[in-house]
UniProtKB/TrEMBL annotation:
Pfam families: DDE_1, DDE_3, HTH_Tnp_Tc3_2, HTH_Tnp_Tc5. InterPro entries: CenT-Element_Derived, DDE_SF_endonuclease_dom, HTH_CenpB_DNA-bd_dom, RNaseH_sf, Tc1-like_DDE_dom, Transposase_Tc1-like. GO terms for biological process: DNA integration; DNA transposition. Keywords: DNA-binding. This is HTH CENPB-type domain-containing protein.
Length: 744
């Protein structure tokens, strides 16, 4: 047999088993036999336990004494007589010197808990069924259904509402026992009855309800309720509204029900009563809590007034002032919470839903639900201290993004970052960080990042006709929304000219000639970009010409005879960029603002990056220019300039260059370009051609089917070309760089 001195015989579990068997009446010898221990080891365990118990019960310096048997009996009697007694009252009445925690631990061992006394009534199964039926009838109604509902109730407000709560001692299962539930206090001269109603748009006035002197107890009667409703409802509730009234005994009085029924029929108002014991289904109950708390916080001096008529008048005045100061958002938020309240009630079969039950129903963490009830926001909704933009500034950016998206060219993340930095620059603040734009999109549910699809030109020919029809629907909506006339509808785009390129055409040759004849063209491969705008009435805006270089030379324009309203600019490579795009927009505004016949101008454009920069969009918004971006890869069908103008202009320019070649001019510079371009422009940019271009694009008049009929609808994927084309190369709207690009 193992020796008694080994540690395994003195483990906590074995000592507890020995003491338990000893309490049950087993002898030391029986314990030693059952536990497979020596008799001396069992005696040592019992002796050690007795020593520790005596040591714990003996008073020590700095520690209150333990409860004696007499003290325990005294505490038990005090709690049975008054369940609402406090720990301090127990200590004072019983003459104890121990700490309240000592009493608390002993009561817990006896199964007696200490919690706030409840005020809610016991909910029977029949009342729960009524609540469930009500929730089932209205739980699927949307928020608009509740906007015309008026929720009414009466409330008693005490001048000392802040000290109503009491703690109660109770055993497990006794929390709702009638002896443990706190009764409502009635203090004569210190409380006042009020009546009010609320709906989504506004609250009503709050009025007093005085007792009936003819009543046996002088309380509120049906006559008083009817007098209040007669004076109050006709000026508050209008035809088509729903009045939800209380089902208290005074509201169920015959005189009240008869008047309500007659008044509702005459005024076209619907009546409904709310289920019994349902403060959670009437949002005005939450308003009473807010009202009482604000009265106690704003007017603490009311609790110290004596019970006089002046004190009651001061209470009424305070209630009216606080009621009128409650924000409209409080009422709106409560009305908007009704659908969720009804669904929670229905999910709980009509019974009240505690936090644990609600967490199970909605499958959320109990801790998370408790934190939200305490007003602790989630990390996503918490506003960091380092936040740079205000709520108003972020909403401006959101609306700007949605507006760009609705017009066909949603911005990239770098564009969103540029918008924010422009707002910060106005108040000399530092720019946003690298991940600000990504986090900004995550914070706003109405925004989302998506990959845009890339199409090559061959696939663009097989575009979905639904997108084409949606484009024309968008144009119609913008014209109707802003009242835009046809002479204020513009289209603009840029196109490139290789100065030394001639146009291909048909010539007459000898019959015996084999192969195609060749025509020599100048070797100049310098590019010129022309930005052109036209309107639906056949007018061409003076062009904006961009040449390669850093400075303007006088000999470029010496023999060109260009009109004075034509604009020219230079760039390093002869292409357009964001700054030049903005300069052209100002040029367009100068040429059209004086001639506009309506408030807004519509500018139809493609998705080139210079057409939707932040500065470009801001200038358009400030000068009432509405921009519409065409669907990608559809300019050959939907853009008037591509449909009927640029092709004719380039062919006419090519013929002018061909004429120069025949005159032995083998190098084309800007000096020769400007006269040739001017002649081609005058020959092709005519009113007839421009009107035909808008008509061919289906814009004037609006005719989407004329464009859809040109699509190869059956061919959903393009036929492979004879030459290999790199499918990974995306089509990008830009100035052509080669002669092949220009010809296409």
């Amino acid at each position: 047999m193992p020796q008694s001195g080994q540690n395994e015989y003195h483990s906590i579990q074995r000592r507890a088993q020995i003491l338990e068997k000893r309490k049950s009446g087993n002898s030391i010898k029986d314990n030693a036999f059952c536990m497979d221990m020596t008799i001396d080891a069992v005696k040592g365990v019992i002796k050690r336990s007795k020593y520790q118990k005596d040591l714990q019960n003996n008073p020590r310096p700095g520690r209150p004494p333990a409860l004696s048997d007499r003290d325990k009996i005294h505490i038990k009697i005090l709690i049975e007589r008054n369940a609402f007694i406090s720990y301090q009252d127990i200590i004072d009445t019983a003459g104890l010197t121990c700490h309240r925690s000592t009493i608390h631990r002993w009561l817990l061992n006896k199964g007696i808990q200490h919690r706030l006394a409840l005020r809610r009534p016991f909910l029977s199964a029949s009342n729960a069924a009524i609540r469930k039926d009500f929730a089932e009838r209205y739980k699927d109604k949307d928020i608009w259904f509740w906007y015309s509902w008026w929720f009414s109730d009466e409330v008693s407000i005490d001048r000392t509402d802040g000290d109503y709560t009491k703690w109660s001692f109770y055993r497990t299962g006794e929390r709702l026992h009638k002896d443990k539930v706190q009764a409502r206090r009635r203090r004569a001269g210190q409380s006042q009855m009020f009546f009010a109603a609320m709906n989504y748009e506004r609250p009503s006035k709050i009025v007093t309800l005085d007792g009936d002197p003819d009543a046996k107890r002088g309380g509120i009667t049906g006559r008083r309720i009817r007098e209040c409703l007669e004076r109050y409802l006709p000026d508050t509730i209008s035809e088509g509204d729903t009045f939800m009234h209380d089902n208290a005994r005074t509201f169920r009085a015959r005189t009240v029900q008869r008047w309500l029924t007659r008044w509702a029929l005459e005024e076209g108002v619907s009546l409904t009563d709310w289920p019994p014991y349902s403060p959670d289904l009437n949002p005005i109950e939450n308003i009473w809590k807010v009202l009482k708390k604000r009265i106690c916080d704003s007017y603490p001096e009311l609790a110290g007034f004596p019970a006089t008529a002046e004190a009651k008048e001061r209470l009424i005045q305070a209630a009216v002032e606080v009621w009128e100061s409650i924000e409209d958002e409080v009422f709106k938020n409560l009305i908007e919470s009704i659908p969720a309240r009804l669904k929670a009630c229905y999910a709980a079969d009509g019974y009240y839903t505690n936090l644990r039950r609600a967490a199970e129903i909605y499958k959320v963490s109990l801790t998370t639900l408790w934190r939200r009830q305490q007003g602790i926001l989630s990390q996503r909704d918490t506003i960091p201290k380092s936040r740079k933009l205000s709520d108003l500034e972020e909403q401006v950016i959101v609306q700007f993004i949605l507006d760009l998206d609705s017009r066909g060219f949603p911005p990239r993340l770098c564009g969103v970052e540029e918008m924010a930095n422009r707002l910060l620059a106005d108040r000399d603040a530092s720019p946003v960080g690298k991940r600000w734009a990504t986090n900004f999109v995550k914070r706003h549910k109405e925004l989302k990042t998506r990959f845009f699809r890339k199409y090559d030109y061959q696939r663009a020919k097989c575009e979905d006709p639904t997108i084409i029809r949606n484009w024309f629907r968008l144009v119609e909506n913008r014209i109707a929304k802003y009242g835009i006339r046809s002479d204020d509808i513009y289209n603009f785009d840029e196109t490139g000219f290789m100065m030394g390129m001639i146009a291909s055409g048909m010539v007459v040759t000898g019959a015996e000639r084999r192969g195609r004849p060749k025509s020599v063209q100048p070797g100049s491969r310098e590019w010129i970009t022309v930005i052109q705008a036209i309107n639906a009435e056949g007018r061409a805006i003076p062009p904006f010409i961009i040449g390669a270089g850093q400075y303007h030379l006088a000999n470029w324009y010496r023999e060109s005879n260009l009109p004075g309203d034509w604009a020219t600019a230079t760039s390093q490579n002869g292409w357009t960029d964001n700054e030049i795009g903005l300069e052209w927009l100002k040029h367009f505004d100068r040429c059209t603002s004086k001639r506009t016949n309506s408030r807004y101008r519509l500018l139809i454009l493609d998705g080139h990056e210079s057409h939707h920069s932040a500065d470009f969009e801001i200038y358009c918004e400030e000068h009432k220019i509405i921009t519409l971006c065409m669907p990608p890869h559809s300019s050959h069908l939907l853009q008037p300039l591509d449909v009927g103008c640029f092709g004719l202009l380039k062919k006419a320019y090519g013929r002018e260059i061909e004429h120069l070649i025949r005159c032995s001019i083998t190098h084309i510079s800007k000096t020769e370009f400007f006269p040739a371009f001017y002649a081609a422009f005058q020959a092709t940019m005519t009113e007839e051609n421009i009107r035909a271009a808008f008509r061919g694009a289906g814009l004037i008049p609006i005719d989407p089917e004329s464009i859809v009929s040109k699509l190869d609808i059956q061919l959903r994927t393009p036929t492979p070309a004879e030459e290999e084309i790199d499918p990974s190369t995306p089509w990008v709207s830009k100035t052509p760089k080669t002669a092949n690009n220009q010809a296409s």
